[in-house]
Amino acid sequence: MNRFFLPRVSLVLSTTVLVSLPALAAGTLSEADAKKDAEKTLTQRNLRSYLTFIASDELEGRDTPSNGLNTAARYISTFLDRWGFVPKGDNGTFYQTIRVRSTYIDNDKSAATVAGKTLTAGQDFLPQGGSEKNSAVATPAPLVFVGHGWFVKGKLDAYAGVDVRGKIVVVAPLPRFLPFGVTQDDIPRDKRGTDWMPPEEYAKAQGAVGVIRLPSEDAATWAKTAAGTRPSRRVQLSPVYPNAAEDTDVPIIGVSPEVATALLAGEKTDLATAIADARAKTETGAFALAPDKTATLAVGIRTETVSTQNVVAAWEGSDDKLKNEYVALGAHYDHVGLSTNANAPDKIYNGADDDGSGTVGLLSMAETLASHPDKRPKRSLLFVWHCGEEKGLWGSEYFTRSPTVPLASIKAQLNCDMIGRSKPEGDTQERNKTLSSPDTIYVIGARMISPTLGDIVDKVNHDYTRLNYDTRYDDPKDPNRFYYRSDHYNYAKRGIPIAFFFDGVHVDYHRPSDEVSKIDFPKYERVVRTVFVTAVAVANAPSLSVPAAKATP
Fold first, then answer.
1. Predicted model pTM
2. What is the average pLDDT value for the chain, to the nearest integer?
């Protein structure tokens, strides 16, 4: 079932009155012109006005997908249309539609037998995954214990020495995402599925027909978790990319401590040892369970397809040749939505800094361009408000896979993700340790692909606002992995030079307390003005060539 809903909204527009004008023969917008326009239009007042709406409770945290996110998209596109921007979404609109598949699991339609015992959903087991095409193992299948179940090329293979084709694998839990001895450097995002696979993916790749997860909790804790699990719930949300293969995930269940203990009785390991070994050993040794121990699985699965969108617009350049090239400006306008905790005093994650600040920064840059339409940068500017960043960089992945302008025409991408916060003087909170000071913004990636871009980024700042550009995280090997954690990465991995502007992680990151009241508006204004003038300078640069020997990190 397909759904796409953009609600009717009443928009309070900026006090700046701009009229959409027909295209005129435009002169070139210089850096000096851009600075003057920014001083007049790109102001704290306008930033606060836009951000107060984008980060308001009425938008309910802008989850992907949600009516709140759709309202934000309508809000942004209303201004773009009013200001005379060219729609660069689908079919002459500002929206690039992305289909999203929601997978729902129904306890009441799920069943399992393990080692001869018929299990009760919600009491003995919880259905946890699968697909409509592959939701059941009807014929009793042999069982194979595979420890933590991970594969990391050249480092570990949990299935070494066993054949799991046509069998159900039994997987031990981990207290954190990665197995012992594996770091984030071992699992680059773009190598998933080839150089590394988590347990359920590896099971499917090796021909297993199902997965049984052992519990990490004691019996009382597991029972409490099971009791709090709704009979029908959404367990997976994933974008449907063009030409993507049909979802064929194998059925997955999690069993209670009582069932797990009985399952491993008389085997080479017991439940306590299986859990301990998964936490403390790189590989724990896979083995087939006794031949009389088999299982059948049936997971009640329902899928539903909904739609969400990127918002895409262009401001045409002034140069007859260069206007067919683009400098992209990006931010993600989604956040993480609503709390599922019924007792939470504040259930709305407003996302003022993350990434309301980038969203509104781009909108204010667009307004500044429209305030002086007779002068334009030589290259065109492409504005992309990405959705689904919080779900795993969905919007930028989709856009760079299916661009609405030729990807080769995008000569650089400037990403604004969290640009409005500062560390208070004397603050010693651990969660604020990476938060930048009022005069500082982190710049990541500006020289990784194109030294020319890095030179422009630095020169504009030196000649204009003189922010402290801190590059301490400008390293793909930095343990925080900030380079990989926002939308610019999907452009960079396709060879497009990028610069990422970022204020650091703070105590309110992904919390309901990320509110407009905590934004440092004087700093925010400086950062947005600087990025705006940088975009104009990049768009006017004679050449943005990338050295042939320069590898994409």
1. 0.80
2. 91
The separation between CA 360 and the C-alpha centre of its own chain, rounded to angstroms, equals 18
The pair of three-digit structure tokens given for residue 355, joined into one six-digit string: 């990434």
Label residue 318 by pLDDT band (50, 70, 90). very high
Beta-strand relationship, 168-171 and 210-213: parallel
**Which residues, at least 6 apart from 406, have a Cβ–Cβ distance to it below 8 Å?**
none
Query: Does residue 242 or residue 33 have the better pLDDT?
Result: 33
What's the pLDDT band for 15 if we cut at 50, 70, 90?
Answer: very low
What does the block give as tokens for 335?
């956040």
Q: Write the pLDDT tens digit of every residue in 239-269.
A: 887 776 667 789 999 999 999 999 999 999 9
Interatomic CA distance for residues 342 and 336, integer angstroms: 16
97-127 burial: b if 16+ Cβ within 10 Å, else e: ebbbbbbebbbebbbbebbeeebebbebbbb
Distance CA 498, CA 412 (A): 6
Residue type at position 176: R
Q: Are 88 and 316 in contact (CB under 8 A)?
A: no
CA distances (Å), origin 336, targets 55, 68, 485, 509: 12, 11, 15, 11
Place of tokens 């150089």: 195
Q: Which of 168, 175, 144 is nearest to 158 (CA)?
A: 144
Strand segments, DSSP code E, in 205-356 are 210-213, 232-239, 252-255, 287-288, 294-315, 326-332
pLDDT 10s digits, 92-123:
999 999 999 888 899 999 999 999 999 999 99
Question: Rounded to 5, what percent of the chain is helix, strand, coil?
Answer: 30, 25, 45
Pairwise CA distance, residues 467 & 46, whole Å: 21
Each residue's pLDDT tens digit, 416-458: 999 999 999 999 999 999 999 999 999 999 999 999 999 999 9
Contact 331, 415 (CB under 8 A): yes
Q: Which domains does the chain have, with CATH numbers?
A: 27-99+306-540 (3.40.630.10), 117-292 (no CATH)
CA distance 525 to 88: 27
For the chain, what is the radius of gyration of the CA atoms? Answer: 26
